[in-house]
Amino acid sequence: MRDDDHPKSGPSNPTRRTFLLTTGGTAATTVIAACVPALANSTAVQSGSGAASADRPNLEGAVPITLRINGKDHQLRVDPRTTLLDCLRETVALTGTKKGCDHGQCGACTVHVNGRRVNSCLSLALMHDGEEITTIEGLGAPDALHPMQAAFVATDGYQCGYCTSGQIMSAVALLKEPCGPDDAAVKELMSGNICRCGAYANIVAAIQQVRKHT
Ligand code: FES
User: Fold this and answer.
1) Any residues with CB less than 8 A from the CB of 59 and at least 6 apart, and which?
2) What three-state secondary structure class fits 66?
3) Which atom of ligand 1 is the closest one to the Cα of 106?
4) 45 to each of 49, 75, 131, 139, 177, how far by Cα in Å?
5) Probe residue for ligand 1, chosen from 119, 135, 163 as the CB with the greatest number of ligand atoms within 8 Å
6) Does ligand 1 lie within 6 Å of residue 194's CB atom?
7) Does the C-beta of 169 come closer than 6 Å to ligand 1?
8) Ligand 1 contacts CB of residue 192 (under 6 A)
9) Of 155 and 28, which is predicted with more confidence?
10) In terms of pLDDT, which residue wins out, 139 or 58?
11) Fewest CB atoms within 10 A around its CB: which of 50, 58, 86, 117?
């Protein structure tokens, strides 16, 4: 008997086949959504941020900081030991920035601080009081992709999608950095961003595509 014919298979008892069909059909949508959250989600994030701050107990030793994230000021109280990555994901609820190694080795957590790329897992939120933070959520909109986001889609520059937001943030920052014209130069400057699926050739193609048109 095939999985599909199993009398117990169904929405409440998904078989391997129905699981794969469902996840496969939505994989691309999930990746794009992670990189360019729907406007509805953005609204939810903003209101969720306020709710989280209001509900959060006034922790002993917490310090007030203001982070300007994606063009909006966020007045927060954070434990001085909180990394920028954890602050973005858990306090501000911007989960497009990913935690991979949490040790500065994979680049999944890359964001821009005052226009320059940083590994947010290696930086304390407290160090960025008053600074301008840009995350993947602030890069483009669903109906107006950043050229780098569009290029990643066009060249299949993502596979599982986990590293994609960090790759794109790094790639956008690279456009403003000294970089030679050939692929080897791009690979060197992107060497801090690991892709476990090995989509490197497509990522380089996306970056070169954008560089040619800017
Ligand atoms: S999670 Fe920050 S470099 Fe890997």
Assistant:
1) 77, 79
2) strand
3) 4
4) 6, 15, 20, 15, 31
5) 119
6) no
7) no
8) no
9) 155
10) 139
11) 58
Question: Is the pLDDT at 209 greater than 60, yes or no?
Answer: yes
Q: Which of 89, 90, 101, 196 to mutate to test the pocket of ligand 1 (most atoms within 8 A of CB)?
A: 101
Q: Which two tokens stand for residue 11?
A: 């929405």
Q: For residue 93, what pLDDT is reported?
A: 98
Testing ligand 1's pocket by substitution, the residue of 86, 95, 106, 195 carrying the most ligand atoms inside 8 A of its CB is 106
Question: Token pair for residue 205?
Answer: 């193609």
153 touches 29 (CB < 8 A): no
Structure tokens at 100: 């991979």
Q: Which two tokens stand for residue 178?
A: 């000294």
For residue 129, which of 173, 75, 88 has the smallest C-alpha distance? 75
Burial 112-136 (b: 16+ CB within 10 A, else e): bbeeebbbbbebbbbebeeeebbbb
Q: Do residues 164 and 206 touch, judged by C-beta distance below 8 A?
A: no
187, 173, 167: which is closest to 109 by C-alpha? 167
